[in-house]
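Sample A.
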Amino acid sequence: MLKWALRIVGVLALVFGVLFWWMLISGSSAPKTADGVFDITDWRIRADRLDGDLPTEVRILEVGSDIVPSFIVQAGDFHGDTAMSYNAVEIVFPNYSIMVGGAIDLPTAELMRQSETDGLFDPAAYEQLTDALASAGKVLMTHEHPDHIIALARHPAPDVLAPRLLLNQPQITALPAFADGELAPALKTVQPGLSGNVEAIAPGVVVVPAAGHSPGSQMIYIALENGEEVLLLGDIVWAMSNLDDLKTRPILTQYLVFDHSEDRATVKRQVRALHDLRVVEPDLIMVPAHDRDYLLKLAEDDKVKWGLAPPRITALPPELAPAETTDSPE
């Protein structure tokens, strides 16, 4: 009897061990190479195509923050917790701003909260965000997940916001799912303003499609007036350690967090490509959406600013040209 009990315990331990390995460790390493995934030379050419003043700075408005277990952020990382930021980004020009992202509202923050003590939401910052979205020259998002789209889908002045939205088709398709009730009529009629190709949308600002984490995922490359370059990564990674260690999120995160699984093979290739880009372009300022400690360090080093700039416009600036949609640089 004891022998059979030990065998059963051994089998159960093996099963749980395999499940633990599969859910939290396996299938998360980036490949050894990922040539041709991203082309910064192309971005630089496109960033210089549109006439006008270049952006002067990149600013981050944090609407909420939280603490999550590190093994949710990076497969095999059991060292403790990771501080997460929920924010929007402002690209500041002399006479207008471009906003990137819609962050979270209070109901979403409460739904997503992982820590009872560290899961925080700033209602004043959220009000600043909705005001900034309504006065921005253009409004983009990196991808169509709730912590990036909610403030767009639930904006209190959709008629004002709608003309400013510059979205791709998957992002537009996702809007109704995140409305508080029925999507506002003005948002229902928004048409794609992005081609799905790499394209400049303002002087110094280039949209880089990067489907994988979601169908509408994209990065934003920014060439600043002072010569610095910034790359908004969206959620290709949640922490810069993902790039350092060439590890993405574990399979478990797919089941706990995402309504629809990301394309893990594509994301792992993007992780490798960004890792390699960081090696050859060490001065490129990479900005992940959620790595709070890293974002605070960027602000401390004056690579980004914390908080929004003073409002600049209340109407669409005429100097913003239509998106450049040529498939390849001239």
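Sample B, a different protein:
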Amino acid sequence: MNELYISYLELYKQSPFFARKKLVEAYLKIRNISEVARIFHTTRKTVRKALQRWEREGEEGLKDRSRRPHNCPRRTPLHIEIIIVSERIKTGYGRDRIARILCEKGLEVKPSTVRYVLRRYKLQGKYKRCKWKKKKRYYDFDSLYPLQHFETDLKEIFDKGTLSEKVIERAKKRNIPPYQWTAIDVKTRMRFLAYSYEKTFINGLIFMIFIIIFLRAMGIRGKITFQTDNGEEFGGKSPSKLDWLNKYIFNPLGAELIHIPKGKKEWNAYVERSHQTDDNEFYIPQLELCESVEEFLWRALRWEFMYNTRRYHSTIRSTPYEKLRKEMVVGKYIAMFPVFILDKISTMYELFFHNPSSKGGEDVLTKDLSNTK
């Protein structure tokens, strides 16, 4: 033949269908498989395979086919895949947590298996670029002692973006407190909770003081630091008020109150993230079941104890209490900070923070301290 042929490999890179078609056309002219293979610089097996597919199916047989194997003996059983998919749709959890849940139910599944199943069913989570990624605060965990540094924040329970209006209205009728006060230990992730009907500074102060008293009663003697935002419920933006609080209230108790920089909520990332866990695992499934305030407080205490002693934390690779026990010897009672309503105690705050030397019994917490030297 006088025609010049491009090699089969070069044609295949451009279009596999076109390359096979050229092999068939050349064979119809030459009628010799070996000669066609020599001209296109390929093997006789390749030419023969293209001819067989063309004879059986015509040009449809020259198109690419799936290389998926007919049998997959090591593939995860279908019923396990259904359980993984349903757990992902129901909870939205990641591969590690789903694998942990299934292992607790008696199904030995590896995180890698969960990952492959989620990928196969196109249920992988979308990557979210965090605008605070470069501004994240990092702690020196090697130098931190357990129950030494607490991130503290206030959460509004009745969030319309999380709870339905029906659940919120039902909770309000049963006089459920709308505010949750949270303190989480950075080292061990131990959390302490309290509730209130009002978002006031005195409630926040009572909450932190009771944590100090509770930890001292449990034998914790080190310095305790509370890290909060600049909200009025934690002292506001006044540096003089913050200095006064540390000098006359926190320092005598072996503690300290610090504020994060303005506009940097990511500095309190641990406590902020724990509020999402509260919504997903406590308020959404249990708030509508509460028939009274007493039942709500009992469920909240049970949730606090479960979070501290039984709920696995993927970052520390254990429960908070197990992490604490690795650092010190302490009983499980430390995981049961009494969950109470702060308003019932803060209404008597004059007994604790009354200044007898001031004229007319001036309240040292509510007066303006901006000019205090």
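Observation for Sample B: The chain has three domains: 8-62, 78-120, 138-353.
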